[in-house]
Amino acid sequence: MTLKFSIHYGLHFIAPAIIAFLFFRKQWIKVYLIFIATMLVDLDHLLATPLFDPNRCSINFHPLHSYFAIGIYVIGLFFKKTRVISIALLLHMFTDWLDCWL
Ligand SMILES: [Zn+2]
Question: 93 is in which domain, residue-wise?
Answer without folding.
Answer: 3-98
